[in-house]
Design a protein that fits this description.
By secondary structure, the chain is α+β, with helices and mostly antiparallel strands. It has eleven helices and twelve strands. Helix 6 packs antiparallel against helix 7, helix 7 runs parallel beside helix 11 and helix 8 runs parallel beside helix 9.
């Protein structure tokens, strides 16, 4: 089916689906209720009519008994006129049968002389006066006629086509269905209003989501918080998603800008150095060597940045599997301190270690060592001469705690939450002094997260920074997959 036709077909839209669902949910019970009520009313009138006809049959039976209708043919004329008048007034047919089930009188003059062996007639002859509705809707009411010596000498059979009842039921049905039609119209109007109330916000959300998919991350859904509904929750979730997308897009743009800047700097240096060599004549060999060393340093810097970027991408995409095994953290921390001690000595910084207990934990030794080394290395770089960097190792029954505390320059409070962003530096003027690619803390953060841990930072300017790393002692099997 053509996509535009699909979108334009109203019966396929959410609103019309809701309307159809509401209509079925509302009309079907009403039809069932109306049908049930009509059947109940009809059954009631039929039962009342059966009682009435049986009563009439007994009255006629009494008259026949007192007049000796079946034994005295001379008195039949008067009695027949009375029965005929009653039959015409009441709208039913009366048949009188003798003890042989032969019709001796019929107000319809059709079946005189015929034998009627109807169940109702037989039951009446057995002294069981009865009235029953037939499958055709006709009611038979039969009552026995007493003769001489209190013997049953015949039966009075009243046949009623129930026309009066059918007329009454028809009138009631027409009024009921007219009322039902009015209710359906009213229900449809209510459903249109309700569907509009429910589907309009959804349509607005769909429009906003489509705009966001086209890059308009600033769009937000209007939230009506007068009452708490699922639509309000949906709108809030949509806005939260938009906030995250806008943040991701902003981070992406900033990241691209930072990468461009970080790579442009060494490339610019290489270009300047190479052009300087090309433009100069009779350059001494020593200057060639010096310039080539500088070019080599800038190339190494670009290589380090690219390698760190590739590492971060692989960590983000979980392409680098962690090799968890039980390791001695005391030994790992001692190795880190030993490796970084020369850097601390060169800066005149005191590097201290405090291992409060012997600890073993499940971890990827190489990656955890790199992450903690980045923290200690960073602390040494940003601690002035005469300062102290202290590394503490501790644990409880569930987690390992590694603390790196320095007495360095500290971090402004508003910058603390951003130090793990890629290429982010608190003091941009110190790039050349401290070196590095600006990605070390991002790699550290990603590594700790892959260990199912956490990392927290407390810092004050000119007072120092404390970074607390927590990782579980034991890794769950899912983390080792």
């Amino acid at each position: 089916m053509n996509e535009n036709l699909w979108k334009k077909t109203p019966f396929l839209s959410l609103r019309w689906i809701l309307l159809a669902a509401y209509a079925l949910a509302g009309i079907i019970p009403l039809l069932l209720l109306a049908s049930t009520m009509l059947h109940s009313v009809q059954d009631y009138f039929v039962e009342e009519r059966k009682k009435e006809l049986l009563s009439q049959a007994n009255v006629i039976s009494g008259q026949l008994t007192s007049s000796g209708f079946l034994f005295n043919e001379e008195n039949r004329g008067d009695m027949e006129e009375i029965i005929l008048e009653t039959s015409q007034n009441e709208g039913y047919r009366v048949l009188i049968l003798d003890s042989s089930y032969v019709v001796v009188y019929d107000t319809g003059y059709e079946d005189i002389g015929k034998t009627y062996l109807l169940p109702e007639v037989v039951q009446a002859m057995d002294d069981k006066d009865t009235a029953k509705e037939q499958d055709s809707g006709v009611v038979y009411a039969a009552a026995s006629v007493m003769g001489l010596s209190n013997q049953r000498s015949g039966v009075v059979l009243i046949v009623d086509g129930m026309k009066n009842v059918q007329d009454i039921i028809g009138d009631i049905g027409r009024e009921a269905y007219l009322l039902l039609a009015c209710i359906v119209v009213l229900l449809f109007i209510i459903m249109v209003v309700v569907s509009k109330v429910f589907t309009e916000p959804v349509k607005n959300l769909i429009g906003i989501i489509k705009e966001m998919s086209e890059g308009h991350f600033e769009r937000r859904a209007k939230v009506e918080q007068r009452m708490h509904t699922e639509l309000v929750d949906l709108a809030l979730a949509c806005n939260q998603m938009a906030d995250q997308l806008e943040k991701v897009e902003s981070t992406r743009q900033q990241f691209v800008s930072n990468v461009s800047h970080e790579l442009k700097t060494p490339l610019s240096s290489v270009k300047v150095l190479s052009e300087s060599i090309l433009l100069m004549e009779d350059v001494p060999k020593e200057m060639y060597v010096e310039f080539l060393h500088d070019i080599n340093s800038e190339v190494d810097r670009m290589t380090a940045i690219i390698n760190d970027l590739l590492t971060l991408v692989k960590l983000d995409q979980k392409e680098i599997p962690l090799n968890f095994k039980e390791i001695d953290l005391n030994q790992l921390m001692a190795g880190i301190n030993k490796r970084l001690q020369p850097l601390a000595d060169a800066k005149g910084v005191s590097l201290e270690a405090d291992y409060l207990k012997e600890i073993t934990a499940d971890a990827d030794e190489m990656k955890l060592s790199l992450a903690i080394s980045n923290l200690v290395d960073n602390a040494i770089k940003y601690t002035p001469e005469g300062g102290t960097v202290k590394v503490t190792l501790n644990a409880d029954h569930q987690n390992v705690f590694i603390t790196v505390a320095d007495t360095g320059i500290g971090i402004p409070e508003q910058e603390v939450s951003r130090i793990f962003e890629r290429f982010y530096r608190v003091d941009k003027t110190r790039d050349r002094e401290t070196g590095g690619t600006g990605l070390g803390l991002s790699i550290t953060h990603a590594t700790i997260m892959m260990h199912k841990g956490s990392i927290k930072v407390n810092s004050k300017e000119e007072e120092g920074t404390t970074i607390l790393v927590r990782i579980p002692l034991k890794q769950q099997p899912a983390a080792q997959a």
